[in-house]
Amino acid sequence: MWNSFADGFARRLARIDPELDSSQETQGDEHMNALETDLGKRLWKDFHDEPTWFVVLGEKMKLLQAGSWPQSLIDCVYQYDWHHKQDIFDLWVFLDFYARLTQPPPDFAVFQIPVGEEPHQDKDVAGNNVVLNNLSRPFKGRFWGGNQDEDGFIEWDRPIHVTSCAAGEDREEVRWLLAKPKRVPLEVGYNSSSKFRRDIRGYHSYARWPYGQPFITVFLDIDRCELMFEDDAEFDVLLHHSGESVEDYMISQRSPWERWDSEVN
Fold first, then answer.
1. Is residue 223's pLDDT more than 60?
2. Distance CA 43, CA 128 (A)
3. Average pLDDT of the residues of the chain
4. Where is pLDDT greater, at 36 or 193?
C-alpha cells in the first residue's frame, strides 16, 4: 500500500498556496514563470520560518525516489525532458495533489481512457488526432498542441462511471460516482508541476496524456463538477441515461487504482 502523510502536512501546503482567479487560466508562459517564482518564494519562506517542514519534505523525496508512489501518476502532475530534473518544488505540488486525491474524503475522482499508444510529439498534430479520433464511445477528443494553455480537449456525451478512493481503504471498496456529460482540457506530453497546479485549480477538471502512457487520465473535482454519489437524488436517473454498469466500467479498463498499485515497489 502507498505511503501517506499527515493531514497537518496537507493543510500546511494548502495554507501557503495563493488563491488563483479566473484571469490566470488563459495566460501563457510569461505568467507561468511569474506564478512559479511566486509559489517558490512562498514555499521557501514558509520553510525558512519552520525548517522542520523542509526535513519532512526531504524524507518524502527519499520515498519518491524509492518508488513509493506510482510513476504514471507522478507523470500526470509533472513530466519534464532532460532540461529539468524534478526538485522539491515539484514534490511539494505532487504531495498536495496526492492528498486531495486520496485523503478522506477525497476532493477528486479519477478515471482513465485506454488509447492503445503513447502520444506523438507535440508538432505531430495529425498523428495525435488519429489516436483521439479512435477513442471508444462515449469519448471524443481533439488535439491542437502549442505552448499556450491546454493542448486540446476530451469530452463525453452521456453520464459515465468514475471512482474515488482514500488512501488506506480497501481498494475493492472504492466509491462509485457518476459524471455528467462534460468537456475537459487535455494536456499532452511534458508538463510542469506549476502549470498542472494552476490548471487543476482553475478548470477543476483535467485530462493528462503524458509521454510513455497508452491511456489518458482524467481528474474531476467532485464538488465543482457536481459528481453524483449513489445516495444522491439524481443518481438513478443518470445511471439510466449512462447505459453502462460498474462491470462495463471495469471491463473497459477505466479504473487506474489497480494499475497504480501494481507500479508501487
1. yes
2. 37
3. 83
4. 193
Domain parsing of the chain, residue ranges: 1-265
Q: How confident is the model at residue 32 (pLDDT cuts 50, 70, 90)?
A: low
Cα separation, 91 vs 44, in Å, equals 13
The string of pLDDT tens digits covering residues 229-245 is 999 999 999 999 999 99
Using an 8 Å Cβ cutoff, are 235 and 228 in contact? yes
CA separation for the pair 84, 63 (Å, rounded) = 20
244 backbone φψ class: left, alpha, beta (φ>0; ψ -120 to 50): beta
Task: Report the alpha-carbon distance of residue 251 to residue 248 in Å, rounded.
Answer: 5
Strand-strand pairing, 205-209 and 182-188: parallel
End-to-end Cα, the chain, rounded Å: 9
Phi, psi angle pair for 161, to nearest 5°: -80, 140
- DSSP H stretches of helix in the chain: 7-15, 29-49, 52-65, 71-77, 88-102, 125-132, 193-203, 235-242, 246-251, 257-263
* CA nearest to 76, candidates 175, 179, 214, 218: 218
- Phi (first) and psi of residue 36, to 5 degrees: -65, -40
